């Protein structure tokens, strides 16, 4: 029995083993994601339709307010509703993931204080179910594009890259907030606030081309600007220029957020059971 | 071979106290507002250390200088009062929290059961929860699939496999939860008090399963307030007291040490008593228990055959119709010898809210010489769980004053053989 794995418990967790351990527990991640999916629309009448109704209604409101009343310009070869909905998709994916993921540590306090597993699985799991919601909304978007005769171009192959960018952004922010929220519950109130503000400061109801040129780089400090611009570039046909310096700023910031988020989360996770 | 080696392990929690003087200080200076701003700024910069000047941190060592080794295949019981550090020790061993000092080396795969049914989701079916819970406990998907039928059979829930567990009875829920846990196959199993659930028959089944596990050469660490299960299951024990190991050795010796720790006294305040206490105290709470002789003197030592008067003071928060109250007589190893129940005496009364004292007279106590404990419980009716329950609240001693039986009976010798109750009998030759 000398081949038995030896575990050494010391006051400081060795960071090196974190990745390997995460891999060992991949089945748990699978089941947690699957659980979220199973229970998401239990005991609701219209079920998964909720995934579509929320962004669709917001799109209608934004189209009326920004498109009809404020008469803001359309991007590419598209109609205003399509332009708004193309932004609504990554935004709802980002905001729901952020909301669930950042509160996940506190919401799963029971499990964390009773069982050991790599804690980082908990904030990652909600992303999968939101991906499914995203996929459903995406079908609606395609239908909407067909309605408004928006041409589908080859640029759509780049879409997954921008989806990954929104995962990176949301996960980076969530890890920070989830770890902080375990100790300081203030963050429970900050998250809805971030999401509410974000809906208006991100270019969802309008095109980011209306931002004056000298401010666009600064505007891209909101990483979701990069994501949304990218989505529109992929989906709304020809005639859209991707503002590259801004995209690079967004990508750099997202990656920094994620790396620092993982480091911070790993450092804090040892304390979770004590402060929850 | 050593399976677990614990060296100098300590766990320190920081408790914050608000320092009153400094707050007063700010007010007299009229600088409270400025300080608030400064503190908020500091708080953003150093979320942890910024309150140093207003809050006093006190270190509380939940565990200190813990050293022990457990060999592979040992079944070790961990006993101690509430707050002695048992749960903290288990949490450190199962890596839920980290130690502040020291190091632990563990050889083999560890599974910890600090609770059954961790992560069960009420909306999911029994089948789904088996997979989810298995994964949480560290089983691989293939492993769960392979053991699925066995788990279902053990839990006896075949019929309800596709029903959401929120519709399960609490018994079914617990059985299913334990069944998943019981089919883990770790080299080291850490168990906390999970046997305190389910009906007696199921508890027996669980004990059997754990016994089986230990005979497969698995190492078991087991925390329990039930000395009976410790005796049944373990071959060694640790007695924790105030965060340190106060005694370690074979089970019976350790349990004796533990029980000597319960105060021998003719009265015991129960309002803050925590050891072995459970129940919601929704309608009643025990306040005080005392023992008296038949002449009205406080007494903790009784002769075999003496009358024992137990006075039990209890606060009722609301009117309650015919509650059932009892006082359990236990041996020092925690074995229940008898239960003095109100219902055995046909005592059924409606009780108004307020503090009441009950007097229970045991007309002739016929247990062998030695030390015993008394523990009260109360329930609203038969079959529900106790509203307040203390397994052992007060200790009494029984001595042999030759009041019962033949003069040369040598009851002290008999009691050492594990027999407890004396039932008089008469003999004749026909």
From TrEMBL, chain A:
Official protein name in the record: Transport permease protein
Family, as annotated: Belongs to the ABC-2 integral membrane protein family.
GO terms of molecular function: ABC-type transporter activity
Segments passing through the bilayer: 45-66, 78-95, 116-144, 156-177, 189-211, 242-265
PROSITE patterns in UniProt: ABC_TM2
Organism from which the protein derives: Methyloglobulus morosus KoM1
A Pfam family per the record: ABC2_membrane
GO cellular component, one term: plasma membrane
Domain ABC transmembrane type-2, first and last residues per copy: 46-268
Superkingdom classification of source: Bacteria
Keywords: Cell inner membrane, Cell membrane, Membrane, Transmembrane, Transmembrane helix, Transport
GO aspect biological process, one term: lipopolysaccharide transport
Compartment annotation: Cell inner membrane
Protein topology in the membrane: Multi-pass membrane protein
Automatic annotation (TrEMBL), chain B:
Entry-linked InterPro entries: AAA+_ATPase, ABC_transporter-like_ATP-bd, ABC_transpr_TagH-like, Bact_Polysacc_Export_ATP-bd, P-loop_NTPase, Wzt_C
Source domain of life: Bacteria
Keyword flag Phosphoprotein: no
Residue span(s) of domain ABC transporter: 48-267
CC terms in the record's Gene Ontology section: membrane
GO molecular function: ABC-type transporter activity; ATP binding; ATP hydrolysis activity
Keyword entries, A-Z: ATP-binding, Nucleotide-binding, Transport
Family matches, as SUPFAM superfamilies: P-loop containing nucleoside triphosphate hydrolases
Family listed: Belongs to the ABC transporter superfamily.
Name this protein carries in UniProt: O-antigen export system ATP-binding protein RfbB
